[in-house]
Design goal:
11 helices, about 20% helix
Length: about 600
Amino acid sequence: MVYKSPGAYARFVKTATAVSSAGATRVMAIVGTGTMFYNAANEGISRSAKQSSDALANGNVFEVHSVTSKPLYQGLVVSGSVEYQAGIDYDLIGGKYIAWKTKEDEDSQPGTGIVAGSSTGSSKFLNYVTALVDGNNGYLVQDGNYRVEITYVDSALGAYRVIDESTQEVLGEYGISATAVDVIPGIKLTVSETFVPKMTGTPPTAVLDADGNPISDTTVGDYVIVSTRAGKAVDTAPAAGSAYYVSYTFKKPEEQFVPKVFYTYDDVVAEYGNYDVTASGKIINSIALGAEIAFLNGTVPIVCIQAKSDSDYEMKQAIDKLTRPVLGIENINTVVPLSTSKSIGSHAANHASDMSLPTNGKERMTYLAAEVGESVGVSSSTAKSLANERVIYVVPGSVTKDIKDLRTGKSNVRTLPGCYLAVAVASLGLKNDPAEPLTNKSINGFKDLNQLYTESEMNLMAESGCLVMRQTGSVIKVRHGVTTSTVDINSQEITLVQIRDYVIAAARQSLGESYVGNKLRPTIISDIQSALISLLNQFKGQEVILNYGGINVKRSTEDPRQVDVKFEIEAVYPLNFIDISFSFSGVS
């Protein structure tokens, strides 16, 4: 028997009556690129009194621009400030540490010493403990004392813990091994044994217990003290405890490449940087541009997921991160990859289909776009190959937009790929209720479409499953809001898929949260039915559906822990056609 996690499950069942079930398209996810590097200016650091290096606030430091005794002013070294020199006064090590050069005499180099505790066993234990300065990480060595204490004694196994004597913090517990551990900063610590046989006689022989087993000369609590000495920085380094200032560039850390929720464009720019579009059409920080268009067309909030590059591989990796829940968001309903790559589009289509399965319960759609200059024939064949009610294919493949140069303040007309049109179109489905047609709705933020089609070309592409944009004067509108599915009306119209998703998601959430985990008593059947009727009446009042019927709530005959719920809805269909007939009247 296949396991199912507790919860409410919902699916759309195609019946003879024209019924749609749907998840409300309310949150858009934009997948694209953003800044990979950040600048930290005048980060104040207090020179350590315990070691010859200081940690920067950020890791992955790519380049240190300056280290000075006073903060820079407008990027310049001020009068009276000491400017420390890389390679002479300090080195950047490990992408995080300012390691000050140390004096060359032996007493100024980092070092260690080990002494045993007062017990006899501690003296024996001392012979099996080594602590050596790690040649690669000597800059981390601190002035300090560390207790290495036996916690388990056994002839085959053994364990010990390491305690910082200054704070009494237990830094870690380890098993005996010939391999060194990095628990003490800058030190390779090796403890090879905690069981030291007790010896007697000449020549020495092991003392045995009554069962003939060796007796240990060490016991739990025996310890040694490892003393460490930091390197002494050169005289040109800042004095211990004094402040100095570092300006540097660091790479975005791995943990930041996750989906994030945004409510304002300024927050997006703060995270991913301002966008720019070059004369050749190269887009810098595509997420910021996509977010601007989404907010301009009325979508709030949006989820952004940064790919490490615009390559097919990295974009697919970013899309895959949307399979996991995003904090603060019930569901991502629409995914728009900021790319016109066919491979990325196919991946996004598969993602939307997989997430929309009843077992995943995360109904979503994806909006894709034609490539720049794509022909009518290629667009038509691409839409036919996608043939998916959860995929929208927007044409044409490019559009112009006035892009402001942040350096000069001057606006230039730049050509954008069609994926930015897709962002605007997807916004129409998000800002309105799910039953509001996209057809004949205008989008904002653009200047001109780069391709204009004849009526026959638009009909051909729409019949194949393309969502065609048209322009009249300065207004750009959706000609017909269709998916790439041409099977039937219920899967062709975007709003019918949205209604279906909206109803499914709401029914699953409402009934699941209210009743799953309760006792399956006889009265709960009528309770579930009443709750469902109330929910469907709300949808009627919101004009998301026209009517409903066929409600059937009963206990499952296959699983005594399950209640089966069935119902039908009458969807609100879009008004797409008005057929006008007229004639001349006869002469009287």
